[in-house]
Amino acid sequence: MADRTAPNCHLRLEWVYGYRGHQCRNNLYYTAAKEIVYFVAGVGVVYNTREHRQKFYLGHNDDIISLALHPERVLVATGQVGKEPYICVWDSYTVQTVSILKDVHTHGIACLAFDLEGQCLVSVGLDSKNTICVWDWRRGKVLAAAPGHTDR
């Protein structure tokens, strides 16, 4: 009889090829370390052009469709699509999660932007009202929410 146990092996992401430009805007930035940050599918990518090396942020469980860079150019916010979409704020040096913002938007997060001081984060949802939220991203709290325009 054949052994039915799972093999003792692990997958490790080595390189991400491509770039998601379809139906996305403002989705590629230079960080403070002069690395390029962007996304492909559900992966946030930080690419060091000098060393031809990539780091990966793997905190999402569906496709990322929006990205914003903090004014200090170290922290990154990414938003995803899906039934229960959420926003991740993460560090581009360590690729570790700093904050997760959830339970407000439905269908996805179409757009993200930090204010000039980096204290607040604004998100626009993919729901029928294109709900706009202003977040205290450090505390994970919505400061204000309002319906946007219904046109895409």
TrEMBL record:
EML-like first beta-propeller domain mapped to chain residues: 53-151
InterPro entries membership: Beta-prop_EML_1st (IPR055439), HELP (IPR005108), WD40/YVTN_repeat-like_dom_sf (IPR015943), WD40_repeat_dom_sf (IPR036322), WD40_rpt (IPR001680), WD_repeat_EMAP (IPR050630)
The entry's keywords: Repeat, WD repeat
SMART domains: WD40 (SM00320)
Pfam family membership, one: HELP
Keyword Flavoprotein: no
Name this polypeptide is given: Echinoderm microtubule-associated protein-like 5
Lineage: Eukaryota, Metazoa, Chordata, Craniata, Vertebrata
Gene name tied to this protein: EML5_3
